[in-house]
Amino acid sequence: MTLQYIELENLTVSPLNVRKYGAKDCDDLVTSIRALGLLQPLLVRETDTAFEIIAGQRRFNACQIIAEDSTVDPLPCLVMAQDDDAAAIEASLAENIERLPMDEVDQYKAFAKLIKEGRSAEDIATAFGITTRMVSQRLALGRLYAPILTAYRKDEIHARDIRNLTMAAPKQQKAWWALVKDDDSYAPTGQRLKDWLFGGAHISTANALFDVEQSGLTVVSDLFGDEAYFADSEAFWPLQNAAIAERVDACRTEGWADVVVMDVGAYFASWDYRSTSKTKGGKVFVTCTAQGEVDFHEGYLTSAEARRLDKVEAGTPAAPKPELTKAGQNYVDLHRHAAVRGDLLKHSDTALRLIAAHMIAGSSLWAVKADPQKASKPEIAESLETNTAQQAFEDERQAIKTLLGMEDMALLDKPDSYYARPCITVVFAKLVELDESDVLRVLSFLMADSLAVGTELVEVLAQSFETDIAAAWTIDDTFFDLMRDKQAINGMVAEIAGDNAAKEHITATAKVQKSIIKACLDGTRTPQVENWTPRYMQVPQQGYTDRSGFPDPVQGIEDIAIAAE
User: Fold this and answer.
1) CB 210 within 8 A of CB 239
2) Engineering a disulfide at 125: which of 132, 194, 334, 386 sits with its beta carbon 3.0 to 4.6 angstroms away?
3) Domains and their CATH numbers in the chain
């Protein structure tokens, strides 16, 4: 039987392996192997295509899991010879297990003793059938403070933390152990332990652009020796920055249009850049993380730069560089605005015209829209078209548009249709030509067009103007179709046909009650009142039950009316 180091992909589980269940339950081995390496060789035999694992399936599975996110070295394997029988295999295993105890602390102590006797790590590896690297890992345990090593042997400290603690100075290890023993203190573990050891700035030697050995900087490594960090992160940055500057100069020499070194920690959002060749003016963008990892993103332009390049290639002349910067323009704009706004307070006639212009054309601060007068049913919309006030309003719309020279444009934005708003300065110039009465006429129309339907303000104005709603509205079938409350309909019967009629037909259907009202209106039945108007269309508005929901008449409406006059 010989010891060989075999790549993971060349190993497979033998059908003769006695372990049939539980082989995938190897989380404990993953942690141990990741932190301390493979402790015991696998027992394999050679086939035509691979090496079959006779013993060590769980260790093999654990190494496969580790290989998913990191590199795994060839595994130590005891390869059975063709003439190996079961007894020989058993004896060989027993001998190897005796020679290499499973407890890694025992291994460390044994190896340390042999080192003192003059044996090299290579000699020890050969004698025990393991790798030189594993010997070094075990000897690294000698860096640990004795109480920490004892606690680890008792399973009181995680293998991951042991790995990190091997990078700590003796003073740091003692300080950490003091935190562990202090019930009132917190001893960091895992990633927090690494942050604690390196003051939050653990910079890997793999990120250095300079020669680490020639730099003379102190480096500490973990138990495996494959993760090394700079002991002094502040000393790292001058050397790293010098190396970055050297690389930047090299990029410029290579012919890149520019090399942009971004701030430390800045993220290169590739979607905000366009890949551009060196011959077309592509640049190099350099990013650097807080841990010193540097990336050179070659051949890019910002999206804005790429668009300018497209215009140049299309023959569109590049926009001239503005005389003022954005900040300078902002300064000038703000001071001019303040001066003009102050003068506007003294010119109410101009302000009046500006209000109308803003209502018509809008601006970044104005968004005035006409009420859509949205009807919930088609028959309601048809009924509204017969309203004489509605007809007169649309006639006024056309007259105002003619007054402003806007025959082909809408005055206010209709929510359900799009139109191009006119230029506000053009509208203002037209309004300046009109006299006060015409400007007030335009404003009155715009305000009326943007008065919201169904609001209390409509009722306030109706009471203030003492509006005769019945003069514009004619009762129609749509009104009757929408009346569904029998108590309210009975109240209408009482008003137009009298209380006796209402009592007589109190149990009649709504259809019968409505027919009585219609008969009074068309003269086939004598009404009790002339020119009857439903309470809903009176001013102030009222209902026929306590459930109407209409507000009480507006208090102080007389004062509003006087002010309006």
Assistant:
1) yes
2) 132
3) 2-158 (3.90.1530.10), 198-321 (no CATH), 333-453 (no CATH), 469-564 (no CATH)
